[in-house]
Design a protein that fits this description.
Blueprint: E1 2-10, H1 14-32, E2 35-40, H2 45-51, H3 57-64, E3 68-73, H4 91-100, E4 104-110, H5 123-126, E5 130-136, H6 146-149, H7 163-178, E6 183-188, H8 194-207, E7 214-219, H9 220-229, E8 236-239, H10 241-254, E9 262-266, E10 271-275, H11 292-304, H12 308-323, H13 339-351
Parallel strand pairs: 1-2, 1-3, 3-10, 5-8, 6-7, 6-8
Antiparallel strand pairs: 4-5, 4-9, 9-10
Helix pairs in contact: 1-11, 1-13, 7-8, 9-10, 11-12, 12-13
Bound molecules: 3-isopropylmalic acid and manganese (II) ion.
Length: about 350
């Protein structure tokens, strides 16, 4: 089959991690006889430098015209000194989500057995953790009333949700739970917020159509504690945009290996995949960044194409690299392997080649 994949490397180490992911996709192409047509677009700080916008029209066109989008990393700390700048790198991503109607951000949390010691939590606590977070991505406090809010002497951000916005992501979460451990935890602040009360009502009604799935509710402050105290008690987590932004980052620390974690943002038609980690500007072009999160984002991309065997081949190759200690220095300070070694190992493993590594990058 033919698939069009938009590659948006973005800023910092984005280019390097996308290159490794592309290697793996090309290995999949060869082994499974597919055709992947790559189109490259600029986004983020790099786009601002040339086009004065974080999401140039051409990039949007490429994305709209593709079957899936793979993003590297976006951002540059030079913009952090001016938090109220009109144009910021991450606006590219926010605009893209809106333009493409990406309403659900999906973040799996998986602990690699050989990396259990990396977690800041005790092995006993993280044992068995397998969480899938569904964060609403297209609405809530991120998108309402933005134009008026900063012009006056006061400022506001409104959290507004419609039944439709809640129900479409809730269905995704329940369907996912059916194929997992049959549990959905809705996280909200329904003791205070009206929008949360609507979430509870809509999600409770939807739960009726999934009799095998147990639904529980948690207030977000309590959930922030529980996620650290007992992360392994969660299966599917469902929450609104802002709470999801915070809880997803909190959860990513539980593994102690944030550079292995991917995420997907999906809508009716389009889907975008990216690593959870940021641009690590200081690591750029040093061959030090860990490509695993982006490679696992491509596994999610393949699953989105319903290429399950292909996705499994990528996952198995990643498992193998981690189990064998073919990892970058963030996971093993004594490691002699760089970004390219790890990418090559994984791509070669997909190709079925033997597991030797060329230490000279030849
Ligand atoms: C994320 C990021 C974005 C968000 C930023 C870059 C706007 O933190 O994808 O979680 O807050 O949604
Ligand atoms: Mn975030």
């Amino acid at each position: 089959m033919k698939y069009k994949i938009a590659l948006l490397p973005g800023d910092g180490v984005g280019e390097e991690v996308i290159q490794q992911a592309k290697k793996c996709l090309e290995a999949v192409e060869e082994v499974f006889h597919h055709e992947f047509i790559f189109q490259i677009g600029v986004i983020g700080a790099k786009a601002i430098n040339t086009y004065e916008t974080a999401l140039p029209k051409d990039t949007l066109r490429i994305c709209k015209n593709s079957d899936a989008i793979l993003v590297g990393t976006i951002g540059n700390h030079k913009f952090n000194n001016n938090p109220v700048a009109e144009v910021r790198p991450e606006h590219g991503l926010i605009q893209l989500r809106k333009e493409l109607g990406l309403y659900a951000n999906i973040r799996p949390l998986r602990i690699f057995p050989s990396l259990v010691d990396k977690s800041p939590l005790k092995a006993d606590i993280i044992k068995g953790t397998d969480m899938l977070i569904f964060r609403e991505l297209s609405s809530g406090i991120y998108y309402q009333n933005k134009e008026d809010a900063t012009k006056a002497q006061s400022a506001s951000d409104v959290c507004k949700y419609t039944e439709e916005e809640i129900s479409r992501i809730a269905h995704l979460a329940f369907k996912a739970a059916k194929n997992r451990n049959n549990r959905v935890t809705l996280i909200d602040k329904a003791n205070v917020l009206n929008s949360s009360k609507l979430w509870r009502k809509v999600v409770r009604d939807i739960a009726q159509s999934y009799p095998d799935v147990a639904l529980e509710y948690q207030f977000v402050d309590h959930a922030a504690m529980k996620m650290i105290a007992a992360p392994n008690r969660y299966d599917v987590v469902l929450t609104e945009n802002m709470f999801g932004d915070i809880l997803a980052d909190e959860s990513s620390m539980i593994s102690g290996a944030v550079n292995t974690l991917p995420s997907a943002s999906v809508g009716e038609k389009q889907a975008l995949f990216q690593p959870v980690h940021g641009p690590y500007t200081e690591l750029k072009d040093k061959d030090l960044v860990n490509p695993v999160a982006t490679i696992l984002a491509t596994a999610m991309l393949l699953e989105h194409f319903r290429l399950f065997e292909e996705a499994m081949a990528v996952r198995e190759a990643v498992d193998k690299s981690i189990a064998k200690g073919i990892v970058t220095k963030d996971l093993d300070a004594n490691s002699q392997y760089g970004t390219n070694h790890v990418g090559d190992f994984i791509a070669n493993h997909i190709l079925g080649h033997d597991d030797r590594i060329n230490m000279n990058n030849e």
